[in-house]
Structures are given as C-alpha cells and as structure tokens.
C-alpha cells in the first residue's frame, strides 16, 4: 500500500482547481521557470501552475492560503533583481495563460488586457488602432504586462509618458486568501476614496496577484526625429535637455546619455558601429516622436542648431533613415554583449537627483578606482528621468558575490539622497540595501501592509523585505 505524502495530497488538490495540462511538478517544471535574467538562484519549487482564468487564480490562492503554502507569482521572467525566482517548496503561479487584449477603446484611449499579455503585443495592438502604449523596454517581446506593473517598470520613454504607474487606470487583483479585488476603473478621474490599485503597482507580487489591467493609451506616432550628439560634459547634457524640452514644447520622447567609457566599449567589444568618434566625454541620444516626423523636422533641427551655437553640442549626427535610427539605438540597447564580455558583471540601476548625476558618477568612479583598481565600470542612463545605469565587472576574485562593490556604489548613492533601484525593483538581489533608500518608519508601514493583506506570509516569501 502506497502512503500519500502531504505534498502529494496538496498536488492532488491543485489538480482539482486547474486543468491537468496546466500543472507541472518535479522534473517536469521547465528550466525557464527556475530563474530570471538576474544571477539569483532560488530554491526547488513544489509545482508550477498556469491558471487560465481569474477564478482559477482565486481558487489556487484560497487553497494555498488554507494550507500555508508559499506562492511565487511569475510573468515573463525578464526581471533583473531575482523577484520571481522560486522559493523552496513554493507553488510557482504563472500568468502566461491569462493573456490577450479584451477591449481596445480608441475613442477613450484605453485597453483592457490579461496580465500575461506580452508588452510587444500591447504595443502592436495599440499601433494598429492609431494609438500607442507609452511603456517600452528592451525585453518587450518577452516581458508581460503583469510583471511590468508589479515592478512599476520604467524603460526608454519615461521622460514623456511616465512610469508604468502613470499608464494604469485599473487593475484586477487576487489577494493571498483568494479574494478578488475588481478595481477595473476606466476613468482618468475617480476620487472615490483611496485608489487601492497603487498598493499593488510596484509591490513585486508581495501583496496580491495582478490578473487583468486597464491601460492608458496615447495618440499614435508615425516615427521620430532622432539625433546622436557629442557633449563636453554633464553640465552641457543638462543644458541641452532643458533647451530641447523648451524648444520642442515637452515633446522629447527619449534622452539617453552615454559616458565615453560605455560608448567606447559598446563600439569595440560590443560590436556596434561608432556613428561618431569615441573621443568626446559624453554622448546624448535624443528623439522626438510624432504623428508627422517630416513636418516636425524643422523644429527638431532648429533645436540642434541652437545647441551647436551655444556650445553645448560639440558635434551632431541627425538620423537620415530608419537604418540610422536603429544604429543609434543599438548603442543603448546592446548591453547584453557587454555583460557577457565583463562577466560576472553587476548591473546597477540607481536614481539620483538629476542635477547631481555628474558629480555622483565621478564619486563612484573615484571610489571604485581606489578600492578596486582596474575594475571596469561603464556609465549610461535615462538622464531625463534621473536614472543612471552602471555596469561593473568582472567582480574581483576576493569579492565573488560583489557585495563589497555594491557597498561602494550604494554608499555613494545614499550620500546623494538617491535610490538603489530606479526601475528594476528589489527582489532578492537588492534586499540587503533597501534601508539605504527607505527609512525604518517607511519599512515598518510596508511590513504592516504585508501583514494585513497576506497575514500568513505566503506571497513571494523572502523577497523585498
């Protein structure tokens, strides 16, 4: 007679609330569910469930809540902080089957989607209807909107369209005990008491599981005017940004700054063609999206001419074709090749008050040079929204986990009143440093929220706090 273990009994109960083909256990769990794009390694999960409806998510959560079973929500597994890697013995709950565009209202400029819908699918659906969704990431083809919302993703267009939080009108969320919160608001104005959806945007699956969303859309664009600009230093970059925003009436869609060390590396090791010489201190990649790029080109060019006359820009290369635009953006997007070349590498994602970013870079560079001579550190970022990325590696032999390097960078970040995470979240990787950016009073409130919404602590245990 075979004795059924407690885990076997629980898996049997899971099979009663989801379709058999949507439940995998043991060696049948695919490797893609065991890690994200970070270096974090989780534990061995009990099972992977892929519900097809919100009702099934609710049933799974009610069952897990009743049995004290940990649950790790998963999206496209493109995170860089270990927020979705398995906890030992956990049920992995993937939203990939709750996907698709349910409604697109072009008159109201909104879209209702399932949480498992890939970002690129949303972008393409909006474009087909003369609209656009403002969020854009390099992982657009793999990441899912539920994960984007759960991490409050940023990306390339924050300067014009805001973070994910600014693009969400409504949410449907399943709480730890299976309760469904139907917050599918479709109105820009709804001031009927506290808007609870904001508790779940950026919560990294710790307070509830996002199953559906109402998204805010913007008028469509036909293309962009794009330029690569050589700069004398960070002060010139700030002056150029302010000038561009004023001259173009706030229509700057992206403003990326590449320091010389990054530019030189990406155009040599990274294999990207160098459109401009590599001997300038900084480079800015700027574009202005619009419905009629040709008609808007004179204003864009006049802005660049003024920048040259004022000495902020040392050289300017204006994209003449879509091929040029792709070449310019390859400078910014070909980070993966650099990560392979300098592996094991730490990818820092910090935020610093905009006017102090230049000073912060010099401080970090000097401190790393003093403590870790010869360690490569490359700087680039979405300076228009105060976001700085730093690639550091390979990690020193006497600091294999990179904690000493992280302490060096985060100590400087804290001294500037910055954030250890601008857009990648906390997950497992940044959890030891969260107190650098949040006070003990804030952390206490976060713990109280967790205890209230998830009293048994089953949702994404061990992450963030």
Short descriptors:
7-stranded antiparallel sheet; 465 residues; alpha+beta; 14 helices; single chain
- Roughly how many Å apart are the termini? 44 Å
State the helical fraction: 25-40%
The counted number of beta strands is 18
| Major β-sheet annotation | 7 strands, antiparallel
pLDDT below 50 for ≥5 consecutive residues: which ranges?
Answer: none
Strand content: 15-25%
Task: For the largest sheet, list the strands in their spatial order.
Answer: 15-12-14-13-17-18-16
Average pLDDT score: 95
Q: What's this model, at a glance?
A:
This protein is an alpha+beta fold and 465 residues long. Helix content is 32%, strand content 21%.
Description:
- By secondary structure, this protein is α+β, with helices and mostly antiparallel strands.
- The chain contains 14 helices and 18 strands.
- A seven-stranded antiparallel sheet has the order 15-12-14-13-17-18-16, sandwiched between helices.
- It is globular, with a radius of gyration of 23 Å.
- It starts with 5 loop residues before the first helix and ends in a 12-residue tail after the last helix.
- The mean pLDDT is 95.
């Amino acid at each position: 007679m075979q004795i059924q273990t407690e885990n076997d009994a629980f898996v049997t109960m899971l099979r009663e609330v989801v379709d058999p083909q949507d439940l995998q256990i043991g060696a049948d769990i695919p490797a893609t569910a065991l890690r994200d794009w970070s270096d974090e390694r989780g534990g061995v999960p009990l099972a992977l469930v892929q519900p097809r409806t919100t009702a099934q998510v609710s049933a799974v959560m009610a069952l897990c809540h009743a049995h004290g079973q940990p649950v790790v929500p998963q999206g496209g597994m493109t995170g860089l902080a270990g927020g979705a890697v398995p906890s030992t013995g956990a049920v992995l709950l993937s939203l990939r089957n709750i996907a698709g565009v349910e409604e697109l209202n072009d008159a109201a400029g909104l879209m209702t989607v399932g949480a498992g819908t890939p970002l690129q699918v949303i972008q393409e659906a909006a474009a087909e209807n003369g609209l656009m969704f403002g969020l854009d990431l390099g992982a657009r083809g793999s990441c899912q909107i539920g994960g984007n919302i759960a991490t409050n993703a940023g990306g390339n267009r924050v300067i014009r369209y805001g973070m994910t939080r600014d693009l969400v009108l409504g949410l449907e969320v399943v709480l730890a005990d299976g309760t469904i919160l139907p917050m599918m608001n479709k109105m820009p104005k709804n001031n009927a008491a506290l808007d609870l959806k904001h508790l779940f945007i950026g919560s990294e699956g710790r307070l509830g599981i996002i199953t559906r969303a109402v998204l805010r859309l913007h008028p469509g664009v036909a293309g962009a005017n794009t330029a690569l600009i050589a700069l004398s230093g960070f002060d010139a970059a700030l002056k150029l940004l302010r000038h561009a925003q004023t001259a173009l009436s706030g229509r700057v869609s992206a403003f990326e700054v590449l320091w010389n060390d990054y530019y030189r590396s990406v155009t040599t090791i990274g294999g990207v063609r160098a459109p401009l010489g590599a001997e300038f201190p900084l480079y800015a990649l700027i574009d202005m999206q619009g419905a009629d790029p040709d008609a808007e080109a004179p204003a864009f060019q006049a802005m660049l001419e003024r920048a040259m006359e004022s000495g902020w820009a040392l050289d300017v290369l204006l994209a003449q074709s879509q091929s040029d635009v792709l070449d310019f953006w390859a400078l910014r997007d070909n980070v993966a090749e650099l990560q392979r070349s300098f592996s094991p590498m730490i990818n820092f994602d910090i935020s610093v008050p905009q006017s102090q970013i230049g000073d912060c870079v010099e401080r970090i560079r000097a401190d790393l040079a003093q403590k870790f001579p010869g360690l490569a550190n490359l700087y680039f970022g979405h300076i228009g929204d105060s976001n700085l990325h730093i690639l550091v590696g390979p990690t020193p032999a006497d600091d294999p986990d990179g904690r000493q390097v992280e302490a060096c960078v985060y100590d400087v970040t804290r001294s500037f009143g910055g954030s250890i995470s601008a857009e990648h979240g906390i997950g497992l990787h940044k959890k030891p440093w969260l107190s650098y950016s949040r006070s003990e009073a804030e952390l206490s409130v976060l713990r109280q929220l967790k205890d209230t919404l998830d009293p048994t602590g089953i949702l994404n245990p061990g992450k963030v706090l």
